[in-house]
Amino acid sequence: MRNKGIASYRPPAGPQTVLRSGSYHPTIVQRKLLLVDDEEIILITLAAILAQHEFEVSVAATVADALQKIVSEKFDVLLSDLNIGNPADGLTVVSAMRRTQPEAVTIILTGYPAFETALEAIRQQVDDYIVKPANVSLLVRTIENKLTTPLRQHRLPPPKRVAMLLDEHLERLEELWLSAIQNDPRISRLPLDKDQLSQRVHGIMKQVIQAAQSYAGEGPPKYPQHGDQENFESSTSDIVLAEFCTLRRVIAQVVQENLLAVNLSYVIPDLARVNEGLDELAQDAVAKCGTT
Q1: What is the reported pTM?
Q2: The pLDDT value given to residue 153
Q3: What DSSP assignment string belongs to 223-248?
Q4: Tens digit of each residue's pLDDT (9 = 90 or more) over 108-150
Q5: Which long-range contacts (CB under 8 A, 24 or more apart) does 240-245 make?
């Protein structure tokens, strides 16, 4: 979605007194709000409405745009859609704001109020969430209340490297992978039961995690022992490649689900190392399996 020249919206009135208890500089400031959504109509209409309520609104239509603004500008409020292009990638924006500008009010817009577990997890890291379509009066009132009440102290755990995160969510990885391969007719041809498949992906992931942990300085040097734990001789190369492609997608999903816990400074090189480990194991597996 193209953001057709939408600039920052400035309020018609003068500065507004905003007192955030716990702030080092509770002074008279102009309230600045970052609005993040991939729907242009929402950016235009909601930004205009918020401007009428004396907010200076800066808009972003992508996660990349939002992150760039967070590191280059100072904001009092973040108002972000939960899903910006991809499911739950609004949490990436929340995490960046929490760690870069912890005094800012963070509010999530979501169209999925039934996901109680996910919303409770979100609630731990944001000041509030609003269900879409947003009631404008409620939204403005919520922002005003959050700006004028004592600053909530969010208990952010130390950020984790990707390898540690994957190790902690290994059971979730296996569950997602097993669910995904059930819909792949190529992998379903394997003469393996559920337990054997689970053991297979568990062995692959433990090797990849060990190598990635060594790369991240989280453990002693351990490198994948190519094929030591897995037997791919009964597989064909197309099946093996399908397995590893599915696993790569599952890993990305688990990282996405836990972005608030990830050290964003290392997420790209960490994922690159994980993918390198997967590639090495896939190449070795293809060499050992039968031909298509």
Answers
A1: 0.54
A2: 58
A3: ---TTSS---TTSBHHHHHHHHHHHH
A4: 888 765 555 455 555 556 888 888 888 888 999 999 988 887 6
A5: 240/282, 240/285, 240/286, 240/289, 241/282, 241/286, 242/181, 242/184, 242/186, 242/187, 243/181, 243/187, 243/201, 244/204, 244/278, 244/281, 244/282, 244/285
